[in-house]
Amino acid sequence: TWRIASLIERQVEAVRELVGRNRVICGLSGGVDSSVTAALLAKAFGTQLSCIFVDNGLLRKGERDNVEEEFTGHFKTDLHVVDARQRFLDALSGVSDPQEKRKIIGRVFIEVFQEEAASIPDAHFLAQGTLYPDVIESGANPDGPAATIKFHHNVGGLPERLGFELIEPLRDLFKDEVRKMGAELGLPDKLIWRHPFPGPGLAVRCLGEITEPRLDTLREADAILIEELHKADLYRDVQQAFAVLLPLQTVGVMGDARTYEDVIAIRSVNTEDFMTADWSRLPYDFLQRVSTRIINSVRGVNRVVYDISSKPPSTIEWE
Ligand code: XMP
Q1: Model's pTM, two decimal places?
Q2: Is 291 annotated in some ligand binding site?
Q3: Start and end of every GMPS ATP-PPase domain (predicted)?
Q4: Which of 98, 165, 186, 310 is placed for a possible disulfide with 319 were both Cys, Cβ 3.0 to 4.6 Å?
């Protein structure tokens, strides 16, 4: 870890020199890369760092609280949590096409982020957690599109358009080095090993129309799956696991009564690079526990199914 510690020192020096007394903005997503970026910059700048976290209402359970705890409680940054839940819901109202959802979420995200960034005076720099593999993905031009892929997968060229100078303190690093750096900076294990989560969030796991009650159902079911994975010490054995809410009802029976309620699908994959993936051979008794808990405690769900498709030809997400 001495190597990581000295890497952190060097980066801290370098960004301090670059930024001087200016204010730096860092967009936080709740994921590993943006969190490590923010933690590094918090070490360099303290409250001279303004973090922006957009609550789009499409987050997993507890995500916003965790970010607040980490970046105001632990790291004392100037954290701006923007509650844009209603705005996203309104924009998504009546939309069920997946690509349409992505477009809308990307557009509203830019608007909200831009408004918040504009309210922070004297900020010239925008930091983002681009890693080395993201730089390579961009192909010939390392300052091209990939620089912004990370920021929000569906948004291109954002920092430039907003008139910021970009800082990417992780751009020479691979994921495992970023995780080590996060640990060295004092980020909790749970965050460092967090599964990837798509920019459009629960919107692409809530198949069909997005409504607040449907998002709540999905969020509760997903939280149970994730909690059980941690409890069974299986979370780190799979690379991505989540719940999906299907756009249909099926018949069930409860006591003497017939029910006609929602279906939750569980998706869990093992993968090296997310380009190909295999479905996780999770133990039957684990799946049994998850199913029972979801059906017993999530209102309006009477059936749980497990996705046994590999990528390709299926994708990891359902939308
Ligand atoms: P698929 O579903 O294409 O997913 O097999 C591969 C990986 O990409 C993530 N993913 C997204 N990430 N915006 C993102 O930021 C998106 O629109 C998006 N779609 C898929 C997915 O979660 C998986 O890790």
Answers
A1: 0.92
A2: no
A3: 2-194
A4: 98
